[in-house]
């Protein structure tokens, strides 16, 4: 298990509005994500008000999920049902301080979510592909292409199929609820492609290119002209991949994403680590949600 941080964000629009989060990454990197990702509640608040979240404080904790659990247990919100893991709440500064004190003392829980990271990552991918489609599923996704999960639609039909079919846009086989084109599912999820780019005349520089499109839609079309696609990865979360690749390249966002001077081998190595790093990050978030869901 990795140690990490619990952090407190405040928002200028309301002195009693707080976002409490945990991360194994640099809290400043998480702050940048919260301010820029419109698929998250924090990002939508930025978009609506024109004001960014600020990092009020952060503390190192041994077991981030457990610390977060301890935070909410020390507040009056502990009795509320699982709130989707959003954790943006109106509370007083005294309540926040009580929660933080409790989180700092939380220590390590004996038992952790024990499944491998990739199962959490597949499960998260399926859940994200089902937003707003009126379809739910049970259990974990052990594999995207083989193995089946139980699904049910809002009209009460139940069926069993491969996660890949549903992520690809298939709806309820009986009433068609949740049927979408695979492009629309990709767009809704913020999926696409991330590319390591090289320049035909500046061999010492690389750049990162992202597109909310499939590789077929951009390959061979000089999409990043004059930059050339040197490596690419299909990814189901472009915003997360972009944030992580810059971190792996040693230049965490936010910045203006200018080309960087770096040995191509080093950049290729960062690209090789990207999928692993994404899986790890998504699994962290999944375990966190699971831990909050089981809060008693
Ligand atoms: Zn149905």
Give a written overview of the molecule.
- With 296 residues, the protein is an alpha+beta fold.
- The chain folds into three domains: 107 residues; 71 residues, no CATH class; 91 residues, no CATH class.
- Helices cover 38% and strands 22% of the residues.
- The chain has ten helices and eleven strands.
- The strands form three sheets. It has a four-stranded antiparallel sheet with strand order 3-1-2-4, sandwiched between helices. Strands 10-8-9-11 form a four-stranded antiparallel sheet, with helices on one face. A three-stranded antiparallel sheet has the order 5-6-7.
- A hairpin with a 6-residue loop joins β8 and β9.
- α1 crosses α2 and α3 crosses α4.
- The radius of gyration is 20 Å and the shape is globular.
- The mean pLDDT is 89.
